[in-house]
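User: Watch each token:
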Amino acid sequence: MNERTYGSGSGSGNGAGREVPESLERMLAAEVSLPSRMRHLAVGLAGLCGAGLITVLWATEPETLPVRTQAAFGGLITVGLAWAAFAARALGRRRPLYAQDRVVGAGLALTATATTTVAGIALAAVRATPAAALSTGLTGALLTAVAGAAMVRARGRRRELLRVRGELEGMREGV
């Protein structure tokens, strides 16, 4: 395994060099890379724009909307603002989040898809044919499964980074 020595010389504080595994360098670089930041920016802008458009649509309605429609608009605005807040938090940090941002994002996706699936099935069961309710349920189940898989993957990634961090802290204590 290739390793690079950091901290040797006058700028390290304690003067001792530390070897950092190349695999860790790659992991950390991916966490703070420009493409990663651009994805967070896109998610944040999409959430903010979606929330803004729904707010404008709701505010410009000439008459009071039914309670169900108001609840749906409020829910969609909340989801959009949650994604914008998530992206702002991830972009506002100057150091890697050890994949915590992925866990939070996957949690948002899982919550939003599960809630939308339940609401869609309930609405389709009341207003549509059994075939439409089944179709809605299957589509929602598929999307929820994808969000669940993203959550499992994000938690695994975070566990791996925390494990490597623990190893590095052990290396530092041994120096």
The first strand starts at residue 3 and ends at 6. Strands lie at 3-6, 18-21. Confidence is low (pLDDT under 50) at residues 1-16.
